[in-house]
Protein: non-specific serine/threonine protein kinase
Amino acid sequence: MAGIGRFPFASTIIIIAHLLLSHLFVPATSAGSSFVFNGFRGSNLTLTGSAIVTGLGALRLTNNSNLLSSGYTGHAFYPMPLRFKEPSPVNRTFSFSSRFVFAIVSEQQNFGGCGFAFTIAPSSDLPTAVAGNFMGLLNKSTDGKPSNHIFAVEFDTVEGASVKDPDDNHVGVDINSVTSNFTEPAAYYTDESTNQTINLQSGESLQAWIDYDGVSGFINITIAPLSHPLRPHRPLISRSLNLSPLLQEFMYVGFSSSTKKVFSEHYILGWSFAINGDAPPLDLSKLPRYPKIKQTSKTSRLLPYTSTLGLFLVTAIAIASFLLYRRWRLYSETVEEWELNYPHRFPYKELYRATKGFREKELLGRGGFGSVYKGVLPSCGLEVAVKKVTNGATQGMREFVAEISSLGRLRHRNLVQLQGWCRRGEDLLLVYDFMVNGSLDTFLFDQQKGLLAWEVRFKILKGIASGLLYLHEGWEQVVVHRDIKASNVLLDAEMNGKLSDFGLAKFYDHGSNPQTTRVVGTLGYMAPELSQTGKATTSADVFSFGALLLEVACGRQPMDYKKSEEEVMVADWVLMCWRSGRILNAVDKRLGMNYVREEAELVLKLGILCSQTAPQARPNMVQVVQFLNGDASMENFAVESVVMKSDCGGFEQLALAYPSSDRLSSSS
Structure:
């Protein structure tokens, strides 16, 4: 510094040069985890394959040369890895955001190949990747392997049957494979929420936004023409996606592209990216120009065959029009504006394809509220059960959809998860997780299913009790199921019980009184006070659960008119057995002695306790779960404390005195 001090002019020049150089590289580096490129002239991207930066400053991933019949691959990555996760043991996944402007130019418009992909990969070098449908990302032997750790958003312009592409103009999300987890036809939504198709290979400049929320695990992907510079309010793709297992601590971000038999030029004109923040805005006025290839006309070769070709085209157009009209009739739906406010909505087209047109072969069963079909979602391969309900005029459609959307937010291991819904006319389609072992009632009453062991029965009852406790106490509102019975308990592959069919469920705020509503449910499981009050209460659910307890333990439905008069009502019969000191005589005879005596006695007595006519005499689900888990004792309940009396409505009423919830908690 002493030497510089002797020459102040030279010192000034050095400082100015240093500032200019620092300013020159600000657009590329920004704040460590964010950067922006308004054109790529002078950038330091890592380029491989056919990728170059043109003299005008555009990033060209592939060119239009057809010298190689096997096609080209091109890669462009930011030169340094970025941190996408906190180091072990935290491993928290960061959010990220990107926006870029691109253009795909083909020698023959609407006929090019094969597209490009925004890519996050563990390395900027992908030496084994091949061209064609593999997008320059993978090859046949590596496609689909979890060890790839590759995330990509593809902009695909070729329909590849081998990778299950839906069409030749779509946007898809790829996880370790070029077979997309979910796709949507290229389009954007206007301010009026109208879906406008976009031709990816039109040669025009298009803008894309990709935003991932590492906290909620949700990804939003939006595209729009450059003539629509503001981001549309509604994204093209908005899906739940957990990238935590895929993303490593440090990853490279960039673009990959490929061509094969038909060639296209894939251009990126501007690009910005950020970790844990919004991607910096692009200065659209500074974006570089790119050459638009003129279409080569081959009309002269066809002139001698004009008449024949014309006739062929007219016939082909007529056939295609008929097929398109028929397809439109199959898939058509009118989406009203209010429906866009409720999440988890599936397109009718996807559910129609999933159930193979709701064909009879996929029918799982029919009930009073609709038919249920097995389906496989084409976007992700998930097995689902699709319930088709005709709502009619019993309830406002908007109110019904609001309740269904609320159910989509319920999360518990003993509830069948509602994946989403769809409305078409007066029909509502409800999409649930598929339960491979069907319903509990078939195992109790279908001789072909074989005998259901006691330990499995007890595990199922404890699981359903846990699910009901979550509905009554554990969610943001009180949820009253109103139709608890064995046929609404579904079993997964491990024979875990999951409560299903929330079509009659009612919601109300904690601490408030439920409103009077129409009486619904199944005879034998309905609490007697419903005929007087019409109010859906948690106590009514407890009554239904009591009927389920007795049904599972006894292997009999709540009412059986084939039995003798004293055994018609299962609850009366079990109470009679309890009074005579032989309560275990009520256990399902098919079990023989293959059951745990203490557990069976507990289930039978608890079934009676829950089945009392007086709502205030029944336990709540907190107490029920305590009993089943062995955290509270039923020693205080003796048959002598059971008193029969008639209420003003003429019902026989069981009045059981039971400890308060404080006493239950203290005895656990």
